[in-house]
Design brief:
Elements: E1 3-5, H1 16-28, H2 38-44, E2 46-51, E3 53-54, E4 58-61, E5 64-66, H3 68-79, E6 84-89, H4 94-99, E7 105-111, E8 120-122, E9 131-136, E10 153-156, H5 160-163, H6 165-174, E11 182-185, H7 188-197, E12 202-206, H8 207-216, E13 221-226, E14 233-238, H9 242-258, H10 260-269
Parallel strand pairs: 1-11, 2-6, 2-7, 10-11, 10-12
Antiparallel strand pairs: 3-4, 4-5, 7-14, 8-14, 9-12, 9-13
Length: 284
């Protein structure tokens, strides 16, 4: 697999050096977390980190934090018997910050992976995150997975999607093909821009993110097929922070019981996912 890292400007929103540091820090800090328990959190408030540009889960529009997770946070503020202190920032460093106790929880669509489970515990999944490919609508050379052979793919650097590209490689090999050049981006909007301009042939992301993009730009992009096995995103806390994990899972269960969870899923994802697992043990 040939990989090319691509930086579009001298100060990208998701700094490459920060990303590298975060990726190194997360697995290495397992067991060294100084995560706060509920007693401490009740005294000083719950510090949650959310992403700034990951539609439709969390993003900023007209200066306001919107998306599925941000509406869940609004409800969490009413549910929790303590203050919720939200910090909105780029993806880089969020999970590492949770693992070291800088933030109590990552309320974002963090895909559950075996590597991340070394330093983090995850709540019940909040959606489906199966990986799909996205193509230009006018590109007639791609009609199915086998047509991706040898073509250039765009994907976010350091993401779970990048780590699982070998699954697509295996699919292609079964068809007599192979995975082409991989171009890594600091953020998905950059990858989508390059796809529209023909600089890459397709982009791999989760099905919900891609469905949202296609709905916004149906004349430009077209959703392809699944290129991974099952995958789910969830919120994250530091490894071993059982009290906080139980509290957040209780809140999610309450949202499901009231119907609010499905309501927000339909609003932001276009569909509800009633059969999500309560707990997910990832294969990768």
């Amino acid at each position: 697999m040939t990989t090319v890292s691509l930086i579009r400007n001298p100060m990208p929103r998701r700094l490459v050096l920060g990303l590298a540091a975060a990726l190194i820090a997360v697995p290495m800090l397992a067991g060294t977390s100084k995560a706060a328990g509920l007693d401490e959190i009740k005294q000083r408030g719950l510090i949650v980190a959310t992403e700034d540009d990951f539609r439709p889960f969390e993003f900023v529009k007209d200066g306001q934090a919107v998306g599925f997770d941000n509406e869940m946070i609004d409800d969490l503020k009413k549910y929790a018997p303590f203050e919720i202190k939200q910090q909105i920032l780029p993806w880089t460093g969020i999970l590492a910050g949770v693992s070291t106790g800088k933030y109590d929880a990552a309320i974002t669509a963090a895909i559950i992976t075996k590597e991340r489970q070394q330093s983090l515990d995850f709540t019940s999944p909040i959606a489906d995150a199966t990986h799909y490919y996205l193509k230009r609508k006018d590109d007639k050379s791609i009609t199915s997975i086998k047509d991706l052979s040898g073509k250039t793919v765009g994907v976010q650097a350091g993401s779970a999607l990048l780590a699982r590209l070998p699954e697509l490689g295996t699919m292609l090999e079964k068809e007599g093909g192979k995975l082409g050049k991989v171009v890594e981006y600091t953020s998905y909007p950059e990858a989508y821009q390059d796809l529209a301009l023909g600089r890459v042939d397709y982009v791999v992301n989760t099905v919900i993110n891609l469905q949202t993009l296609v709905a916004e730009k149906p004349g430009v992009f077209e959703l392809g097929q699944a290129v991974s096995g099952k995958s789910f995103p969830a919120w994250a806390v530091a490894k071993g922070n059982t009290e906080l994990l139980t509290f957040l899972n209780g809140f999610i269960a309450k949202q499901k019981e009231s119907g609010r969870f499905a309501e927000l899923q339909k609003k932001w994802f276009g569909e509800a996912f009633p059969n999500l697992p309560v707990k997910w043990d990832p294969e990768f």
